[in-house]
Design goal:
Layout (H helix, E strand, L loop, with lengths): L1 H30 L39 H23 L9 H7 L7 H19 L10 H11 L2 H14 L4 E7 L5 E7 L15 E7 L6 H4 L3 H8 L5 H13 L1
Antiparallel strand pairs: 1-2, 1-3
Helix pairs in contact: 1-3, 2-4, 3-4, 5-6, 5-9
The protein binds manganese (III) ion (MN3).
Manganese (III) ion binds next to α2.
Length: 257
């Protein structure tokens, strides 16, 4: 429960607030004509973190998404891969400006330089997987409802057409990465992909910034045990376990705060 509260309230409210202030900071830097050589200004966080990052518990059994996502994949993916990102992140932030930043504050501020690389990869890994576990549900599948459903119809034509585009994006990721459905700054929905553990909240990193509504992990570790090289089959199965209720709440928060 603690994790869900964190993600849904403070965390997402924090996103809106921090995104605005950081965007403003970027804007004033840009209009101020700062030279390219100037060190990036990293806004301080609103709150300081006092405990290490921890692996969140799953809200369901590792076998609960069968047959679409198998138990062993979930165990290895959550208990080992995600734990690895958490451990590496705790290690990477030590003695850096990010040492006591909350996860969102790191994600939204991280840069593209070599010095930020380990933090970027592991903060992204921790954020993306925490988000992914909540994007999935044993009671998932079906179709979106409410305002999100209307927005998907308006943007993509229909839920089936959205699925086509989202699947194409997920298949197109070369190597490891993610496909996302996001709300942009203009409040419109868009589909995008990110390599490795980048995500659309990384303002300085991604081609298109936005607030994720759903995301699919297309690293081979997410599907290889069950689907081997057949990534398209895994993507098809994903729609049977997408938590559209959670997605609808994320959408409303992104749209209306
Ligand atoms: Mn993964």
């Amino acid at each position: 429960m603690e994790k869900r509260t964190f993600l849904k309230t403070g965390f997402f409210l924090g996103i809106a607030a921090a995104t605005t202030s950081f965007l403003d900071a970027c804007k004033s830097t840009a209009t101020g004509g700062a030279s390219d050589a100037a060190a990036p200004v990293i806004p301080p966080p609103k709150l300081r973190r006092t405990t290490p990052f921890e692996l969140p518990k799953l809200a369901y059994e590792t076998s609960a998404l069968e047959p679409h996502i198998d138990k062993m994949t979930m165990e290895i993916h959550h208990d080992r891969h995600h734990q690895g990102y958490v451990n590496n992140l705790n290690d990477a932030v030590k003695n850096t400006v990010y040492a006591d930043y909350e996860l969102y504050d790191i994600i939204s501020r991280i840069g593209t330089g070599d010095a930020d690389k380990k933090i970027r990869n592991n903060a992204g890994g921790h954020w993306n997987h925490t988000f992914f576990w909540e994007t999935l549900s044993p009671g998932g599948g079906g179709a979106p409802s409410g305002q999100l459903a209307s927005a998907i119809d308006a943007q993509f034509g229909s839920y089936d057409k959205f699925k086509e585009q989202f699947s194409t994006a997920a298949k197109s990721v070369f190597g490891s990465g993610w496909a996302w459905l996001c709300v942009g700054k203009d409040k419109g929905l868009f589909i995008t992909t990110t390599p490795n553990q980048d995500n659309p909240l990384m303002l300085s990193v991604v081609k298109q910034n936005g607030t994720p509504i759903i995301g699919i992990d297309v690293w081979e570790h997410a599907y290889y045990l069950k689907y081997q090289n057949k990534r398209p089959d895994y993507i098809t199965a994903f729609y049977n376990v997408v938590n559209w209720k959670e997605a609808a709440m994320r959408y409303e928060k992104a749209m209306f705060g």
